[in-house]
Amino acid sequence: MTNRLYGIPNCDTVKKARTWLTEHHYDFQFHDFKKAGLDRATIESWLQRVEWEVLINRKGTTWRGLDEARKASIIDVEHAILLMLENPSIIKRPVLVTAMQTCVGFSDDTYQQIFKK
To answer: Could you tell me the domains of the chain?
Structure first.
């Protein structure tokens, strides 16, 4: 399985993850979910390894831009999936999918643990 990194190219954290993977010579495919879209099956595959609360970025401008009623409606996995499909920018980035795990966000230490030889 090819490593796949999901995000948007102008996100600073996504840029850091892409740079880290490239500098450490790990093959990966980048999926720009703003341009290429995101389907329910992909989100559901992430949710097999990561809780929906981890995927929703409640600190970003997209979340802050939602009205209070919409925020309050995100109470379970189904509502979270619908929100992510409606507005992929709400997803915490990047999402890295390897054969063994799904990781949300980026840190050097975490990626070193994922790819330790």
So the answer is: 3-114 (3.40.30.10)
